[in-house]
Amino acid sequence: MRIGPDHLQNAGIVHGGVHCALVESAASIGGLPVVQRATGRRRPGGRGEQQHDFLRSSTGGRVTATATPIHRGRTQQLWLVLVADADGKALARGQVRLHNFPA
Known about the structure:
alpha+beta; Thiol Ester Dehydrase, Chain A
């Protein structure tokens, strides 16, 4: 994602909500195939929990969110997501628990 002036808080650094949205989006995209296999649904059934750590401030630019599954089960999933800048420096990390509700 390219982060520009619209994503900054008053202090001129990236708003934490931007990182939270990236973390949830990456986990949801990663979790979709698991939900489809486990339940037949076309989308995750709900989020159970999110936890975020903001590691380094940024003033914008290109960032990448990388989601890694910790657990992918029949009823729930747990994903770890790292948000890094263009130089590969970690800006934030988050953990998202997804529930696989049946259709």
